[in-house]
Amino acid sequence: MTVRPSTFSSKRNIQSFLLLLFIFAVTSFSSGMRIDQGKRMVKRSRKNCCFGVEKIEPNKIPTLQSKNSANFGTSDYLNSEWKNQWLSSHNKVRKFYGTSPLIWDETLAKSAQEHAEKCTIAHSPNAFGENIATGQETIDAVVYDWVISQDECMAYDPDHVVGSHFTQLLWETTSRFGCAKQMCPKVHGLSDCKNIFVWVCQYDPAGNYDDQARKNVKATKGQCPPKSMFTLPY
User: Fold this and answer.
1) DSSP of the chain, one letter per residue?
2) What is the CA radius of gyration of the chain?
3) For position 129, what pLDDT does the model report?
4) For the chain, what is the domain count?
5) Is residue 26 included in any domain, yes or no?
6) Is residue 216 in some structural domain?
7) What positions does the domain SCP occupy (predicted)?
């Protein structure tokens, strides 16, 4: 993974590169420059991070009963229920922070699907903002992990902004997004998880620019939405 220099704390960035994670975020932290955030840990058990490892037969997509589930096909960026679930999950978080709602973009969703099909935790080379997750069972669980984690909303400090999935998801000038998922027998970059979903969302205009963070992320220090906002399978 190639990483361009950031204007934020190099110590914080170096530390982030050394941590194993199952969720990644694209960041754009120096004026006009987009970088990969690097590897970061999400505090979930291995069973959750590798959801379905023991339960899913090889080459078989699981049947999930949750209304907000991953039980869609690979071209679901065209599915209205899929779109509405992503819109609801993103925009209820943005509303909580007083941020304008996003609209769905099928071009971004198609681009996200193309990248998800690569079954990798590496980011795409395009200019869009991008969040990636692996192993979650539902759309709400994906967004929950992008928002409520120790290194997401809990760590947010407007005086010392470090870009994350959380900041991209809330970025005020981002107006459009599209998401996709792919069932992957194995994931490039993850050696211990097989037969799991890779989830990708792409955002335009991209967020996470260091000189625009304070005006684009309307959150106070450590401010998180209630867990009850999300419908979770665990």
Assistant:
1) ------SS-HHHHHHHHTS--SEEEEEEEETTEEEE---------HHHHTTTTTTPPTT-PPP---TT-S---TTGGG-HHHHHHHHHHHHHHHHHTT-PPPEE-HHHHHHHHHHHTT-BSSPPSSSSEEEEEES-SSHHHHHHHHHSSTTTGGG--TTS----HHHHHH-TT--EEEEEEEEEEEEBTEEEEEEEEEEEEEEES----GGGHHHH----TT----GGGS----
2) 16
3) 94
4) 1
5) no
6) yes
7) 81-211
CA of 145: how far to CAs of 50, 168, 220, in Å?
14, 13, 19
For the chain, what's the residue count? 234
Give residue-wise pLDDT tens across range 86-134.
Answer: 999 999 999 999 999 999 999 999 999 999 999 998 889 889 999 999 9
Supply the pTM of this predicted model: 0.74
Helix axes 80-96, 139-147, angle to 10 degrees: 30
Task: Report the chain's mean pLDDT, rounded to a whole number.
Answer: 74
Closest CA to 104 of 219, 12, 201: 201
- Domain span at 183: 66-229
Task: Return the sign of the alpha-carbon dihedral for residues 111, 186, 88, 173.
Answer: negative
Tell me the Ramachandran region of residue 77: left when phi exceeds 0, alpha when psi lies from -120 to 50, beta otherwise. Answer: alpha
Does any domain span residue 102? Answer: yes
Looking up tokens 């097989």 gives 194
In a domain, 161, yes or no: yes
Q: Are 62 and 55 in contact (CB under 8 A)?
A: yes
